Amino acid sequence: MNIKDSNGTPLNEGDSVQIIKDLKVKGTSVTLKRGTIIKNIRLTSDEEEIECNAEKVKGLVLKTCFLKKV
Known about the structure:
Elements: E1 17-19, E2 23-24, E3 31-32, E4 37-38, E5 42-43, E6 49-52, E7 60-63, E8 67-69
Antiparallel strand pairs: 1-4, 1-8, 2-3, 5-6, 6-7
């Protein structure tokens, strides 16, 4: 399975990614700002999603179209 970021760069387990757009997190009042770096991502069975932990939110699932590999 080839999971790629918004630029087409392949992503692997444990990579660090940067958010390219402000994202509101459902169920909380937290907004992840553009430029936030998220470390140690986990790949899912869906090619368009990854799992991660952000600063204030644990267990996030993010779409790869909003991410760029660092």
